[in-house]
Design brief:
Distance between the termini: 36 Å
Structural class: alpha+beta
Strand order of the largest sheet: 1-7-6-5-4-9-10-11-12-8
Radius of gyration: 21 Å
Number of strands: 12
Number of helices: 8
Strand content: 25-35%
Mean pLDDT: 91
Low-confidence stretches: none
Helix content: 25-40%
Length: 260
Amino acid sequence: MTTEKTIEWTQRDIQCAESVLANSTGEGFSLPMLTDEEIVALDGLERSQAVALPWLDLHSEQRELACNVALRSLLSKGLAFPLIGEGETAPSGLGAADEITGILTLRRLGERVVTAELTKDGDRVWMYGYVHADQVLEEVVDSAGSHTFTVVSRLEFPDRLMTLANAAEVDCADGDPLSFTAERFAQVAEATLKDTRGVTTISAISLDPDTFRHYTIYTQGDQLHGMSASEDNGMAMLNLATISRATGVEAIREVVEAGL
């Protein structure tokens, strides 16, 4: 059994992370796009990833080879380089370009991590948010294993999650929530949600496990439904309601902001 090595952050790591956040509003500033295998190659084959790696998962038997090829490409482009300490002749580690180093650092040091997974037409898209004070590093992963990064304000992030869930901009009136046991909910969902076109599950957690929150949005042709969980006399209940877009954004905001 192997134990994952603790990450030792350097002053350069922190400076690069701060630079990414500071330059995010600069004109012409953009962050590099990375693939599954590039992220794993840079972060370390032995290090677990909390994000979806759809392309690598499809080629798990060639994971190490794919990551080595990706690393070779990054080295040839100057986006990665061997670290050689003073007085040493052999590399002691691997470094990366400032923006990439900043991204990898911000992904590991978020005050709160938000995960959203959209399932639509048999395809999946994932959006992750790493909260840093009033800013969020956003990571969008498509089914091909491409990871796109953007820095947005924490205030703006819930609206961007709602856009992922509701790209068709469906809007409707709020309805009264109804509560069901999990068993009963399965029966209700079969009738009420049978025309669902997309399902987005949103979860968020901080270091304190009590701050875990979860919310699900069902998108239909002309309606949105929001589902949350609660407890009634020790029994787990699922609460379902027709929601407007604005109500959906506020529900997502509560998930994002809990414990901050």
